Amino acid sequence: MDYRIRQAKEVDLPSISRIEAASHPRPWTRDDFKWELENACGRFHFWVAAESCTERPVAYICFHFVIDEIYIRNLTVEPAERRTGIGRRLLDLSCQWGKRKGTKRVVLDVRIGNSEALKFYRNCGFDLIKGYINRSSRLMEKILL
Ligand SMILES: CC(C)(COP(=O)(O)OP(=O)(O)OC[C@H]1O[C@@H](n2cnc3c(N)ncnc32)[C@H](O)[C@@H]1OP(=O)(O)O)[C@@H](O)C(=O)NCCC(=O)NCCS
Question: What CATH number corresponds to the domain at position 120?
Answer without folding.
Answer: 3.40.630.30
